[in-house]
Design brief:
The chain is an alpha+beta fold. Helix content is about 20%, strand content about 25%. The chain has one domain. The protein has 2 helices and 5 strands; from the N terminus they run αβββββα. It holds the Pfam family DUF2794.
């Protein structure tokens, strides 16, 4: 009688991968969010981690459509850029490979003239 090692089982079920923001990305986004809250522009946010995209939505009030969506789409990494800022009407305001440069389009809202 010969003893054979058990055959390894191959997992047939693969858990769906989710796209999410990394800690350093969230730190950059939340830094901007904190400054905009202090300026009275933004009041609430929501984070969604989906299969193909991670979304950070910014709201003026809780129960309305988001003013801006900051999206991370890894599939666009080699083309238009990993990150995008999308306005309330669905228009892409800025797209790029570096999160800080993409968020500059929102930082311009902080710059106001002093009367």
């Amino acid at each position: 009688m010969t003893v054979q090692p058990p055959t390894p089982m191959r997992p047939t079920f693969k858990a769906p991968e989710q796209v999410s923001f990394h800690r350093t990305e969230l730190s950059v986004i939340l830094s901007l969010y904190g400054r905009m809250v202090a300026a009275g522009e933004w009041r609430d946010y929501g984070i969604s981690s989906l299969r193909e995209v991670a979304v950070f939505s910014v709201f003026r009030r809780t129960a309305e459509n988001p003013l801006y969506r900051i999206e991370k789409r890894p599939k666009l990494r080699n083309r238009q850029g990993l990150y995008a800022v999308i306005g309330i009407d669905g228009q892409v305001l800025k797209r790029g490979h570096d999160l800080r440069t993409v968020l500059r389009v929102l930082e311009r809202k902080l710059i106001r003239s002093v009367d």
